[in-house]
Write a structure and sequence with these properties.
Order of helices and strands of chain B: HHHHHHHEEHEHHH
Shape of chain A: elongated
Number of helices of chain B: 11
Largest interface: A-B, 55 and 48 residues
Helix content of chain A: 25-40%
Number of domains of chain A: 2
CATH class of chain B: Mainly Alpha
Low-confidence stretches of chain B: 1-5
Mean pLDDT of chain A: 95
Structural class of chain A: alpha+beta
Oligomer: heterodimer
Number of domains of chain B: 1
Shape of chain B: elongated
Order of helices and strands of chain A: EEHEEEEEHHHHHHH
Keywords (chain B): Membrane, Transmembrane, Transmembrane helix
Strand order of the largest sheet of chain A: 2-1-5-3-4
Organism (chain B): Nannocystis pusilla
CATH class of the largest domain in chain A: Mainly Alpha
CATH architecture of the largest domain in chain A: Orthogonal Bundle
Distance between the termini of chain A: 67 Å
Number of helices of chain A: 8
Protein name (chain B): Succinate dehydrogenase cytochrome b subunit
Structural class of chain B: mainly alpha
Distance between the termini of chain B: 71 Å
Amino acid sequence: MSKTMTLTLQIWRQRSANTPGSMQTYKLEGVNEHMSFLEMLDVLNAKLTKEGQDPVAFDHDCREGICGSCSMVIDGRPHGPRKGTTACQLHMRTYKDGDTITIEPWRAKAFPVIKDLVVDRASLDRVVAAGGFVSVNTGVTVDANATPIGKKDADEAMDYAACIGCGACVAACPNASAMLFTGAKVGHLVKLPQGQVERRGRVLRMVEQMDREGFGACTNHRECSEACPKEISFDAIELLNREYMRAHVTGE
Amino acid sequence: MTDAKRPGRLSTLAQSTIGAKIVMAVTGVILVGFLVVHMLGNLQIYLGPDTMNHYAQTLKGTPALLWGVRAVLLVSLVLHVLAALRLKKINNEARPQAYAVPRRYRVTTPAARFMLLSGLVVLAFIVYHLLHFTIGATNPADFNLHEVLDVATQTWVRNDNEQLLAKLPPEMVRHDVYSMFVRGFTNPLIAGTYLVAQLLLAMHLSHAVASMLHTLGLSKGLDARQRNITIGRAIAAVVVLGNISFPIAVQAGLVHL
């Protein structure tokens, strides 16, 4: 038999990018412990809609922790209290009857609020577009083993490639820095042979774009990797610094 | 992207956030290096007036080295402060609207969060310290102390007769740093000021050293990172324990005139 609980929710409501927002309090009864956090918000929205109120806007897509859409700071922590867990994979059994939960959007200049809990994260896409790719002529698919890659490099590349671009690192950083994200994107390609050709220009252009978007700078608080739902290592920033210095030293 | 607009020159390095971090780290290495040497040099106070004053005399006797080091330190300090202020401005602007609910941090430390505050206090202290012990502007009576070489016994003797000092050749007069040091720390208010400033320096260094090693790409892996955090705290502790021992030793009467 599953337990149900009554929660007090304090949620950031903001009609549009240009109107000021505020925290609003909602009481929600009958929350099932097996619901995900987003399902709990679905229940709240069904109730608000029935009452003729505007439902809470929040980003979501796959609801299985791999798309990076859900983006909310729950009780002062991006994606909530559980380590290595996206908000959609957070379940209400984490909470108990009578709890008060606060929910607000990512806060960064580079992530303007669109509505309520939805922010525009196109800035991260532009950082990737600046260099987070390899240029290959399309054609016949090459054999999977045509390019041998050492186990260690393949593992590290995969660890960095696990980044889902949700922006929790920026949200968690006291400086709203995107260096963990950028480092992960640079790191995943620099570990692979395919990433070598554009290695130098990639890191220079991505950092330039990252700065242009108005993200802050890392001061080594290490909150980003702790908040990351994919547990990207803080090594990503160390790697980014090293690659950036190397790009300046090697020249062309 | 055309070649003319291609980033990667020194100017783009200097303008970038990572470039500013590298400036912080490189100047930080220089400043921490100086702090260690400065503390070790001053430990000679425990070896008595002659050793301490001879040390000071040797430093002042090699003006090229002395002023060379001072110039490097001044440039490092100015660049360190300017880069810090620039980064702080960028970081403040990166989050124009604060969180409505205070964030619950997981691993950061108060030392990391209040680096600018501890840094500015230490900067103010450096200005005071230079006025106090290097320029002698704040307590001139405790600063203008000299020793004169007694040719017969080949020993150095305190003598503050200004007319005599002016007449003697420079190699027969030396600054009585030992007495300046002891008289400087006899005032409990001054000793207390040094103690407080050193505690803030400890706070600053405990985050600074690990931070600069990380920025310079020397913290690959969890183990290396943990090791660098430990190294940083150890350096902070050694420098500051050495430094605070001086006013404490004078106040306790262990080092006296």
